[in-house]
Design brief:
By secondary structure, this protein is α+β, with helices and mostly antiparallel strands. 28% of the residues lie in helices and 28% in strands. It has a four-stranded antiparallel beta sheet.
Length: 100
């Protein structure tokens, strides 16, 4: 998903627009996680970026994707660019501590 969300919409108050943006993002992430995993893949991971536009977007962790939306609304941005790309994730095995 690569999309620019406007904060001002006719017939909608700004708090409802922000809620709608967050709901659409959460719905997209849930939909992507439901897709079947390819062989040898442990989970779906996401590369996320947010900013005023595609050129100024900075990387953000998927668990903190809503924080830039709140910050942008506080700073009165006209819109926010959000990019979420699904990728294959592999769990790193933790080495077991040696017993003495």
């Amino acid at each position: 998903m690569k999309k620019t969300f406007p904060f001002e919409m006719p017939n909608h108050k700004p708090p409802r627009v922000i809620e709608a943006i967050k709901a659409e993002i959460n719905k997209y992430i849930k939909r992507e996680r439901r897709k079947p995993l390819p062989e040898g893949v442990d989970f779906w991971d996401f590369d996320c970026r947010t900013g005023k536009d595609a050129d100024s977007a900075v990387p953000v962790h998927v668990s903190e994707i809503t924080k830039p939306i709140d910050a942008a609304s506080q700073e009165s941005w006209p819109a926010i660019y959000i990019e979420i790309l699904a990728k294959q994730g592999h769990r790193a095995k933790v080495a077991e501590p040696e017993e003495s």
